[in-house]
Amino acid sequence: MTLVGFMQAGNVTVYSGSWRYPSADLSFLTMDYYQRIARTLEQGKFDLVFFDDRLAMPGIYGDSVAEAVRRGARPIKLDLTAVLGGIIGATSRIGVGATYSTTYYEPFHVARTFATLDHLSGGRAAWNVVTSVNDSEGQNFGRDTHFGHDERYDRAQEFLEATTALWDSWDDDALIMDQESGEFADPAKVREINFEGKWFRVRGPLTVPRTPQGRPTILQAGSSGRGREFAAEWADLVFTADPGLSVAQQHYGDQKQRVADFGRDPDDVKILPMAYAVVGETQSIAEEKERLFLDAYVHPAASLALLSEVMNYDFGKHDLDDPVTAEMTEASSGIRGLAEGVKRHLNRDDLTVRDLAAHRATLLQGPRFVGTPERVADQMQEWFESGACDGFVLAATHLPGAFEEFVRMVVPILQERGLFRREYEGPTLRDQLGIKRPGTVR
Which residues are listed for FMN binding in this entry (predicted)? Predict the structure, then answer.
């Protein structure tokens, strides 16, 4: 089973109330904080520690960042290059991943950043490809509004074509470094790419030689039809957000078939639902901890600020008890998809804004494993062995405790059952994942 630790470089996890948990470490502005968490995950033999990112504070709600700042709803997002550099220096085997946007960056910049990280880590770098989500991000990069869905994916397609061409612009054996003769590298094995498309023109070659992984590992989380096609063509890891086992099984089969349709080996692409685990010494302790996470520490305004951000829709114009209307769902395909998911989860059709906010606040969009270490392992094993996933992206309810408890109490059980490694398989992230190193494409 593949295990990924899901992180934010800021004051909260994906759970917006995590900073309020009494044992939460609030030293998120120090490198020690991130290094400690990464070392914990490496001790637990996780494949990857991965950082989500956004390029703006949540500012859609009430057309202001005020509530996000007041409630700690992800107002802080550190630069991920620096954070990953610090983690690389403190670890030796765990993969290190970061989100970079194809909408607001350039292919040469991203190609060089992740090639550099792959070399400096000895082959452990991963790039989470996103197209970004809302107008606030666009407004930090000179645009009044965000690109439309299809435009974002058209641009992302070109972005990946250019970036992978840059990674392939050096052959594996281009470096000679003969100090006596003075020949450093073979110019016949270093090429301009001369990429030209609608969105990008890139001459190349890249200023970083071909990396230990050949190309850094690619992550992607598209859930729409276009997103699934994009992931099938490019991704090595696909993050999903399926709330139930049957839905996850259907998604798993669909995504693997799409991968095969692109002529790729489905076993080289890992499907990983985002989940979180609440572990307790007894079932009642775990359930009480979950109750605190769900009820005690999330302010509704924080939930609505984050919901507005991801849906690019201002929920500030609604009261919490307003019904979810057709007008809302027509305003955003994301709201429509979210509402359908909440209806299935709650088993009713009459939803309110409060229902959507609670869903966002408590991570109900993915599986939540609650109980004793054995019970959590049982639930994970059921998903893994029933054709629903190849592993999990674990999001912490609080840090560093959630990951420390999981590594200490659940990982040994998964290892005893033969579901998870006891030692790392090799030096690179692709070695841990069991996926092929790509050859150079000219």
Answer: 53, 99, 149, 153, 223-224
Q: Is 261 annotated as a binding residue?
A: no
pLDDT at 441 over 80: no
Q: Is 224 annotated as a binding residue?
A: yes
Residues 309, 182 share a domain: no
The answer to whether position 271 is within a domain reads yes
Containing domain of residue 332, as a range? 299-361
Quote the Cα angle for 92-90-4, to 5°.
Answer: 65
Residue 53 annotated as part of some ligand binding site? yes
Cβ-count burial of 142 within 10 angstroms (0-12 exposed, 13-18 middle, 19+ buried)?
A: exposed
- Find out whether 16 is annotated in a ligand binding site: no
Dump pLDDT digits (tens) for 76-123: 999 999 999 999 999 999 999 999 999 899 999 999 999 999 999 999
Whether residue 442 lies inside any domain: the answer is no
308 is in an annotated binding site: no
State pTM to two decimals.
0.93
pLDDT single digits (tens) 229-285 = 999 999 999 999 887 899 899 999 999 999 999 999 999 999 999 998 999 999 999
pLDDT tens sequence across 383-402? 999 999 999 999 999 999 99
Residue 378 makes CB contacts below 8 A (sequence gap 6+) with: none
| Same-domain check for residues 357 and 407 | no
* Residues 153 and 192 occupy one common structural domain: yes
Does 149 carry a binding-site annotation?
yes
Evaluate whether 98 touches 49 at the Cβ level (below 8 Å). no
